[in-house]
Design goal:
Number of strands of chain B: 12
CATH superfamily of the largest domain in chain A: NAD(P)-binding Rossmann-like Domain
GO molecular function, one term (chain B): GDP-L-fucose synthase activity
Pathway (chain B): Nucleotide-sugar biosynthesis; GDP-L-fucose biosynthesis via de novo pathway; GDP-L-fucose from GDP-alpha-D-mannose: step 2/2
CATH class of one domain in chain B: Alpha Beta
Radius of gyration of chain B: 19 Å
Function (chain B): Catalyzes the two-step NADP-dependent conversion of GDP-4-dehydro-6-deoxy-D-mannose to GDP-fucose, involving an epimerase and a reductase reaction.
Order of helices and strands of chain B: EHEHEHHEHEEHEEEHEEHEHH
Oligomer: heterodimer
CATH topology of one domain in chain B: Rossmann fold
Protein name (chain B): GDP-L-fucose synthase
Radius of gyration of chain A: 19 Å
Strand content of chain A: 15-25%
Structural class of chain B: alpha/beta
Number of helices of chain B: 10
Number of domains of chain A: 2
Organism (chain B): Candidatus Liptonbacteria bacterium RIFCSPLOWO2_01_FULL_53_13
Distance between the termini of chain A: 45 Å
Chain lengths: ~300, ~325
């Protein structure tokens, strides 16, 4: 178990959605803000080796939460940038951290690293059974290579690199991530309420199920792994339950007092029919246990969107 | 079909075992020596962005052969280095080629990218269906990610990036350095040394039961140049000979060709590596008319002769 107090900790993406919550959890653990380093893109372009070296200087722990990603359209239109930026940034940062003598490196990966044909719920041993969805392959492969690199660095250099696979997250501040389903539903309802419309439209049949993790719980899990998980094998971080998009939409509508109709546009794509992570490994390995109920998490998220909508 | 006359061609790894043969094949297909650039170690470190930019500037075609490689022993002790060097070199070379506006880039993958367990012969469409053999996974996966990179640059920038998966190569000019050599040069060297010292036994790794496919390096070079000239799709293509031999039979064959009658002691505590390897080579034939020409025994005899000559010189 690593005592985080007194450690200098680099959080890439620390100003982002998950990253800012990780910083909050660290501060809650008694880490001095002066020891938390958050690189800003304007001053440190981590695709440059020199920027990576500058950022890891004197750092003991690294959480690599930075990433170039976006909605389906962004993935379709920018595959080369997505793979180049994520790969070069992660590979150079991990290598620079190792050379600088960092004690530990936690890479934030994604549930999209699972193959399309992986059995449900996703278990860590099924990460390599097939090809990943081609729509997100550049992002996914870039992330997955950090798992390979971490395992290779552990084997050759004894470097303590850890890889976490995060499910869909939601929570306050998620506006920066277009295309996330919960954000989309909340925004549509807000729009309908503002315009006095009696219905909203949602893509798909509503039957697809997903696993949603409240961002503060995800951040807690990341910090628990930083403190107490020291193994080469990857670990899932999810909520441990799944919900259909239909039930989810109805719940959000109820919490927002929206009594209009929900129209399902069945012609529109809805992605894979089910997605859910098995989280027993994280529970066993470092006591991960997401605390926030969906209703609580949604209330906080809705409140944030109401406060931040024009 | 590309006309190589007046094309400026960057061949990374052009000073290596395969690279030398590829340059010869390029010249035979009409490229001019003055137009071929080989970034030499010492002048260029292709893991560095600025060196890749400098190397790619003004080029029309790029053949990316540079790789950090080794046999099983080297792979087991240096997985981190093998991953980093191959991954970052590939990512940076493709990016620099795109920025320099090259017409085409050919990337070389490896049979090590295939899953450990997959139907034989290996088909391109099964490339992602499983984890590679553990001892060479970091190398194989870093090389496999280059395929996704090639697809992504084609999709976003219309860069004509193609990707080949060559099987184990052998032939004149191979690395006989004990630490890094692959099975054929390692065996030739071992047997030559045993003969010189009068040892009546040699040791070989594993059980001898694993099978391998081998492609003569001049054939591989011809296949690479054929793909450069005629193939313009993102689908990966196997480059092999279609033969398959067990390591046990291979040792027997080399002993016979080198006229060595000593015993073989199999060290079964050492890994065999992947249990079986043979590629389906039909796509290369269909897409760009490639078919390996050299028969295995003839290729081995030339390799052995080259090794003896290199010792003499």
């Amino acid at each position: 178990m690593i005592d985080l107090k007194g450690k200098k900790i680099l959080i890439t993406g620390g100003a982002g959605f998950l990253g800012s919550h990780i910083v909050r959890v660290l501060v809650g653990r008694g880490v001095s803000e002066s020891l938390i380093v958050v690189p800003r893109f304007e001053t440190h372009d981590l695709r440059k080796r020199s920027a990576c070296e500058a950022m890891v200087d004197g750092v003991q722990l690294v959480v690599h939460a930075a990433g170039t990603t976006g909605d389906a359209e962004f993935h379709r239109d920018h595959p080369a940038e997505i793979i180049h930026d994520n790969l070069v940034m992660g590979v150079e940062l991990m290598d620079a951290a190792r050379r600088a003598g960092a004690e530990k490196f936690v890479a934030i990966g994604s549930a999209t690293e699972y193959p399309e044909n992986a059995p449900l719920p996703y278990r860590e041993e099924n990460l390599w059974t097939g090809a990943v969805a081609s729509s997100h392959a550049p992002y996914t492969i870039a992330k997955k290579m950090l798992l390979v690199q971490g395992q290779a660095y552990r084997a050759q250099y004894g470097f303590n690199a850890v890889h976490l696979l995060l499910t869909n997250m939601y929570g306050p501040g998620s506006e920066t991530r277009k295309g996330f389903v919960i954000t989309n539903i909340i925004r549509r309802i807000l729009g309908a309420q503002r315009e006095g419309k009696a219905y909203i439209e949602v893509w798909g049949t509503g039957q697809a199920t997903r696993d949603f993790l409240y961002v503060a719980d995800a951040a807690e899990g990341v910090v628990q792994a930083l403190e107490a998980y020291d193994d080469a094998s990857p670990v899932n971080l999810g909520s441990g339950w799944e919900i259909s998009i239909r039930e989810l939409t109805e719940l959000i509508a109820r919490l927002m007092g929206f009594e209009g109709e929900i129209r399902w546009d069945k012609e529109k794509p809805e992605g894979p029919p089910r997605r859910m992570l098995d989280i027993t490994k994280a529970e066993r390995a470092f006591g991960f246990s997401p605390k926030t109920t969906l209703a609580e998490g949604l209330k906080a998220t809705i409140a944030w969107h109401v406060a931040n909508s024009q | 079909m590309i006309d190589l006359k007046d094309k400026k061609i960057l061949v990374t790894g052009g000073g290596g075992f395969l690279g030398g043969h590829v340059i010869r094949a390029l010249l035979a297909h009409g490229a001019q020596e003055k137009d071929i650039t080989v970034p030499r170690e010492g002048e260029y470190d292709l893991r560095k962005e600025e060196d890749c930019t400098r190397a790619a500037e003004g080029q029309h075609l790029v053949i990316h052969l540079a790789a950090k490689v080794g046999g099983i022993g080297f792979n087991q002790t240096n997985p981190g280095e093998l991953f980093y060097d191959n991954m970052i070199m590939g990512a940076r070379v493709v990016h620099a080629a795109h920025r320099a506006g090259v017409e085409k880039i050919l990337l070389l993958g490896t049979i090590c990218a295939y899953p450990k367990f997959t139907t034989v012969p290996f088909k391109e469409e099964n490339l992602w269906n499983g984890y590679p053999e553990e001892t060479n996974a970091p190398y194989g996966l870093a090389k496999k990610a280059l395929l996704t990179i090639a697809e992504a640059y084609r999709a976003q920038y219309h860069l004509d990036a193609i990707y080949l998966l060559p099987v184990n190569l052998y032939g004149p000019g191979d690395t006989f350095d004990e630490r890094k050599s692959h099975v054929i040069p390692a065996l030739i060297r071992k047997i030559a040394d045993a003969k010189k010292k009068g040892d009546n036994a040699i040791e070989a790794w594993g059980t001898g039961r694993a099978t391998r496919e081998f492609l003569y390096v001049e054939d591989a070079a011809e296949g690479i140049v054929s793909a450069l000239l005629r193939y313009d799709k993102s689908d990966p293509v196997n480059l092999g000979s279609g033969m398959e031999i067990s390591i046990k039979d291979l040792v027997g064959l080399i002993c016979r060709l080198m006229d060595y009658q000593g015993k073989i002691r199999w060290d079964a505590t050492k890994p065999d590596g992947q249990p079986r390897r043979r590629l389906d080579v039909s796509r290369a034939e269909r897409e760009f008319g490639f078919r390996a020409k050299t028969d295995f025994e003839g290729g081995l005899a030339k390799t052995i002769a080259w090794y003896h000559a290199s010792l003499a010189s």
